[in-house]
Amino acid sequence: MLRIKTEQRKVILKRKIGIFAFILVISLTGLVPAFSMAWTGFADSGFVQLFSLAFSDTKIVMTYWQNFIFSLLESLPITGLMIAGISLLALLGSLKFLYKNINDDEILRPSLRSGLRMTT
């Protein structure tokens, strides 16, 4: 009975590892276009130029800091950042799951007693 439950857990775990490996590959392939989209959004919206204003004209920015903050928020490329963030979270989540479950000695690896039988 214990062997049946162990085999069932092994099959379920192998399926989960396959699913999360697939998610890992998809998120890796989606990460490059997502960051490219975010970078293009930063360049197109003028966020970088507006942000650099904080370092070049600090006195003016401090005088009108509320308007400056609102202008920064309006020019922030939310869509690109959200897509990149979701892709990155999927990548990290699948890596975490795979790391935890591949190192599971009890289920995936055969026990040392059965694997190290001496043959003469």
Taking the sheet with the most strands, its summary is: none
* Mean of pLDDT: 85
End-to-end span in angstroms?
Answer: 32 Å
Shape: elongated
CA gyration radius, whole angstroms: 25 Å
Low-confidence parts: none
Give helix % range: over 70%
Number of domains: 1
Let me know the number of strands: 0
- Number of helical segments? 7
Report the order of strands and helices. HHHHHHH
Task: Specify the structural class.
Answer: mainly alpha
Please describe the topology of this protein:
Elements: H1 2-45, H2 47-56, H3 58-63, H4 65-75, H5 78-102, H6 105-108, H7 112-115
Summarize the structure in words.
This protein has 120 residues and is mostly helical. It is 87% helix and 0% strand. The longest helix has 44 residues, at 2-45. It is elongated and about 75 Å long. The mean pLDDT is 85.
Short description:
By secondary structure, this protein is mostly helical. It contains seven helices and no strands.
Q: What attributes does this structure have?
A:
120 residues; mainly alpha; 7 helices; 87% helix
